Amino acid sequence: AAPEPRLASWSFDDQLAVVLEERPAVFSSTFGGIDPAPLREAGIVVVGTATTVDEAKALEASGVDAIVVQSAEAGGHRGTFLGTFEESLVPLAELVPAASAAVSVPVLAAGGIVDGAGIAAALAAGAQGVQLGTAFLFTPECETPPAWLAALRTNETIVTPAYSGRHARAARTPFLDELAAAGEPLPYPLQRAVIADLAGVDGYGLYLGGTAAPGARALAVAELVQILVAETEAARA
Known about the structure:
Blueprint: H1 12-22, E1 26-28, H2 37-41, E2 45-50, H3 53-62, E3 66-70, E4 76-77, H4 92-102, E5 107-110, H5 116-124, E6 129-131, H6 134-137, H7 146-154, E7 157-160, E8 168-171, H8 174-181, H9 190-194, H10 221-236
Parallel strand pairs: 1-2, 2-3, 3-5, 5-6
Antiparallel strand pairs: 4-8, 7-8
């Protein structure tokens, strides 16, 4: 029998209240619209996530200060909130210049960037900055489980809703294939909640990561950042 899903006991409003109380310098959101007004009134810079030009325009209209454009190559759950997930898989080289031309707020490029050459290319395409995730999974400070890193090194990545009920890019493991073959998943977040007990078992986790994971380097954060800066400067020169 399927186990009862274990869901978070806090609501969106509960989480937002904590953010407003703590007042971080920057608040970054995904999965769709959020009213940035109360956050900005608290002096917090608000960043939204877009996977298409239409989403970038919608976020700018809502009042965000900057937009992360999440390309098809990006690891993790898709931030899509307008249109279909299939339509949102736009390559970084196409998404960055199109979004940059469509909005006036800063655009931050995300997806498939693990080195300075990738950073320089994104900046040349019109981005004002970049957001790297997969590149830092391999740093010791991240303490990513070895099974996760091994899965990203040895498997291709695919975009599928099979594990959590929402489309995400992750390493294609035998278990992920098994879940996909089982049919339509439960709605997010119920699907992941019912298999929560398996998430920590080697081979059965959701090993999120981008397409450039094989090129990520296992370095300390400080060293990685120094190298990324040097590579970017060299590429731009």
